Amino acid sequence: MKDKIYGVIGAVVALVVILAVSGKLTSDNPEPLPASTNTGSSVVLADAPKATVPEDKSESVTPKPKGPVIGDRVKLGTYEFTATGISEKGSVGDITTEGKFVVVSVKVRNVGSKPVNIDSNYFTLYDSNGRKYDPSSDANSYLKQQFAFDSLNPGLSRKAQVAFEVPIDAVGFSLDARDNMFDTQYADKVTINLSK
Cβ distance 85 to 152 under 8 Å? Predict the structure, then answer.
């Protein structure tokens, strides 16, 4: 029994010594190492130069978002989508909101061989919390350039804006673009990261 008690006491003392030594080695103002008095070797420790630690720059590097971003052309079937910009507004025309409007500028190109249609309802906005937003038909009616079930001939493109009404705290947006406006659940779609 005494052996066990002495063993526990010895472990505690060893732990205290280890902590004391490691605390001494990692303190902000370490004491200089004493010069060696060992005459049997050629190593002399006196005022060893301080080691320099390279600066960690990983915090200052912003990671690149995954997938397509603003300015990237993304092909989906006979459509090519490019989100060209994003802005936030308190009102669009005469339409106001208790939240804000996120207005996304989009360019759509017909890369197929037949005319296609394009409408604001081909797009859905998501925020960083995964909340889903449909286009605001009221706000879109005030935009100078809007998609309103337009026919787009092969080889041609059209630029317009799509407005979404979102809560004031919504941030970190991404845009889903679909190849039709009716089949929202099973339609082919691409997601474009709109974060700046």
Answer: no
